[in-house]
């Protein structure tokens, strides 16, 4: 159980974290829709999930800036209560050449509570995505 707790990214350690879609939905149930819990709990490898990433960066004045981005990940593995997904978007708030972890095709651990939307990408896309190892593997 202790290892599973370490799967979650944190702003303090990783400079990014995931926002709970369940919490956002609870705050604004009429305007913030999320899929049914049963659907969010039954994702399989190859399913895509939209997540909200909270990202901390340094602004041009040396201060901390916090931005949120909605991005898609494709489930590649299930580890305990976590899904491991591969990021399919380029974070708009990050420089592609930076050393920041979040880039296209890195692994992202998430829970059903983080899922905002679900989709099933075309098989050609999935075959290409899974034909190679991820750019960065999340520690387990």
Describe the structure.
This protein starts with a helix and ends in a 10-residue tail after the last helix. Strands 1, 2, 3, 4, 5 and 6 form a six-stranded antiparallel beta sheet that branches. The protein has helices spanning 2-5, 11-14, 21-27, 37-40, 123-130, and strands at residues 16-19, 48-58, 64-79, 82-87, 107-110, 117-119. It is 19% helix and 31% strand. The protein has 140 residues and is α+β, with helices and mostly antiparallel strands.
Element string (H = helix, E = strand)? HHEHHEEEEEH
Give the total of beta strands: 6
Mind summarizing the main beta sheet? 6 strands, antiparallel
Strand proportion, as a percent range, falls in: 25-35%
| Mean pLDDT across every amino acid position | 93
For the termini, the CA-CA separation is 12 Å
Give a brief outline of the structure:
The chain has 140 residues and is α+β, with helices and mostly antiparallel strands.
Summary keywords:
140 residues, alpha+beta, six-stranded antiparallel sheet
Blueprint (SSEs and pairs):
Blueprint: H1 2-5, H2 11-14, E1 16-19, H3 21-27, H4 37-40, E2 48-58, E3 64-79, E4 82-87, E5 107-110, E6 117-119, H5 123-130
Antiparallel strand pairs: 1-2, 2-3, 2-6, 3-4, 4-5
């Amino acid at each position: 159980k202790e290892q599973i707790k370490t799967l979650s990214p944190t702003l303090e350690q990783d400079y990014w974290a995931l926002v709970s879609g369940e919490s956002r939905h609870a705050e604004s149930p009429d305007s913030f829709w999320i899929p049914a819990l049963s659907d969010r709990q039954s994702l399989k490898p190859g399913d895509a999930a939209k997540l909200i990433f909270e990202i901390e960066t340094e602004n041009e004045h040396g201060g901390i800036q916090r931005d949120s981005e909605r991005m898609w990940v494709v489930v590649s593995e299930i580890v305990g209560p976590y899904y491991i997904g591969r990021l399919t978007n380029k974070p708009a708030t990050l420089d592609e050449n930076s050393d920041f972890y979040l880039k296209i095709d890195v692994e992202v651990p998430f829970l059903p509570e983080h899922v905002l939307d679900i989709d099933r990408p075309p098989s050609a896309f999935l075959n290409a995505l899974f034909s190679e190892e991820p750019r960065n593997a999340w520690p387990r």
